[in-house]
Structure formats: C-alpha cells, structure tokens
Amino acid sequence: EPEVTQTPSHQVTQMGQEVILRCVPISNHLYFYWYRQILGQKVEFLVSFYNNEISEKSEIFDDQFSVERPDGSNFTLKIRSTKLEDSAMYFCASSFRLGTKNIQYFGAGTRLSVL
Amino acid sequence: QQPVQSPQAVILREGEDAVINCSSSKALYSVHWYRQKHGEAPVFLMILLKGGEQKGHDKISASFNEKKQQSSLYLTASQLSYSGTYFCGTEILGGTSYGKLTFGQGTILTVHP
Lengths: 115, 113
Fold this sequence. Notes:
- The complex is a heterodimer.
- By secondary structure, chain A is an all-beta fold.
- Chain A has no helices and eleven strands.
- In chain B, the strands form two sheets. In chain B, strands 2, 4, 5, 9, 10 and 11 form a six-stranded mixed sheet that branches.
- The mean pLDDT of chain B is 90.
C-alpha cells in the first residue's frame, strides 16, 4: 500500500542551525501538508501546498519556515534558524481530493530536537 | 478555533464500548477521525461530510450532526488494538478548498484485557 515517507526519523540540531525535513508524498497525490505536534499536545497545521505554491499557512509558519517541492517527488520543510521551541514531531501529509473528499495520509514523522 | 473533544481519556476492558465526541463552534464541512499510537503517525479512520453522514468501519463507526456541529466516534466490542489517542480533525465550511485540518486535543483510549 502506498505510504508517505519521511526522513530522517530523528534530527538533532543546535539552536540557530538550519534544518531540512524531507518527505516523499504518495505518488498521485496533489495536495501536500506539514503539521507539527509538540510532545503530548495536539497536531497543529503549519502549511498546505498545491500546484507548486503555498495555498494556506498558519501563524506558526513565519519567515523562518519555507517549503519546496524541488522535483516531482520530494516535498521539504526548511527551518532557517531553529529555536528551542521548534522541538516537535513534524508530520508530512498528502492527499488526492476525490470529489468532495480530501483524505490526508500522514507519514511517520520526523522528531526534531533543538538543543 | 480548535474543536473540543470529550472525554479526555477513557479506560475500557476488552469487549466494552466507548463514545468519543468532537464539537466545533464553527460550521463544518467535514470531520476526519484519526488514531495515533505512541510514537507513530496518525492513521486515518474515516471521513464524514456535512449532510449528517454515519459511517462504519468494522466495529468502529461515526456520525456527524451538522446542526450541532458535532461528530461522535463509536467503538464497539473494543479490542486491545484500539488503544491509542483519537483525534478529530475538522475542515471549516467556507474555508479554502485545500483541506487544512484543525485537530482537537485528543482522547486517550486504553483497553485492558
């Protein structure tokens, strides 16, 4: 069964460093998302991406964040200068809107630890 | 504004039933239910669209009351594998068509033998 793949599974970085989190969405999906989950809390929306551009972003997604689909398969989230509060699990999701239904499938996540 | 889930936690014995509720203060287009086990990705269970759907998936079913903007997830004859945190994710009516989900805070379900 097709799945969303994320790498790395765990990333440790120093505060102020740049990180890139990578995702390979399901191949025929057209909508891509990043969510994050701080330990023990709910899943929070960061950004949605469609037709090679950001379609919606949350207030969390400030100028330190960017997303890119550099080729036909990868979808990346870059954090330019990490802060301690960026420590969280980051989930990539993708969907193929079929009529009125937009079912999102999540990857296993990347745990980001900022020291 | 995030949907509100209740209860926050449920403890069951195998074979017992549970209901998890998800309420929104905003008019909803759809409700998505996910189950997340510790350290894993949320796994999609089902989607309900406005129109008062009720759906079933094995012994797990759900309903959506669009007048109350409330969805309920029903787990019957629970199994050990049902243990995990259940999240509802909502799409707002009149929002973008890009599928942003706003999640509730989760309900921790524990099933004991």
